[in-house]
Design goal:
GO terms for molecular function: isomerase activity. With 245 residues, the protein is of the alpha/beta class. It has a single domain, classed as Alpha-Beta Barrel (TIM Barrel). It has ten helices and eight strands. Helix 3 links the parallel strand 3 (54-63) and strand 4 (86-91).
Amino acid sequence: MIFSLSAATVLDLAPGDVPRCAADAGYPFCGVRFSDVAAQAPAVAAGLRSSGVELLDVEVVRLGPDGVTDEHRRLADAAAELGARFLLTVSQDPDLAATTDRVAAVADLLAGSTTRVAIEPMLFTGIRTRSDAERVARAVPGTVVLLDPLHLHRAGTPLSQPADPDLTGYAQLCDAAAEEPLDLAHEARHERLVPGEGVLALSEFLAALPPATPLSIEVQSDQLAAMLEPFPRAVLVREAAEKLL
């Protein structure tokens, strides 16, 4: 499987520094999360050129009741221009019909590029479950689903459930503690565990993925970030993922 260094694992790096970190840590792909697209995209482009790393995903389009915004357009333009495989997209609206229309609008922004919309289901968003995400993806040609074992587990979806090869774009990889937290969003953004250090059935999850599914290793952990600088952190989580395989 292809490994990618998730932006969330090294959020303390500027986006333009992520490609070099990924290359030095042994990743062929990386992801970036923009806070200011116009200011940061040129550095990311330069980093990709100099490192030889490819861009797996750009984060994150957050769809709300206002529909597609100028910021979403800037993210879509940057993802396409940088050659990202996927534009990570989530929805804050529980109305799946309205969300489907907005996802279709984002997909239209990417028409003619190699970048595809990837929907991530999370219990604390409008698209809560894998089945919801797959329903939207089926309705918008070219759209795929991003599978995260943490979110699937918290939603009660068996990690051994085979992933649809026509709908699965890529997957994330992390681990989680046994006890369900009071705040799922906080866990996802601050308390993820290194693969193999928690209770998730990751071997079953990996076996259920289509062959050659890219894996974005996403360990967004305050504790790990306090212990290790970005480069050794990136190496640690890659080695843990390789051990699982």
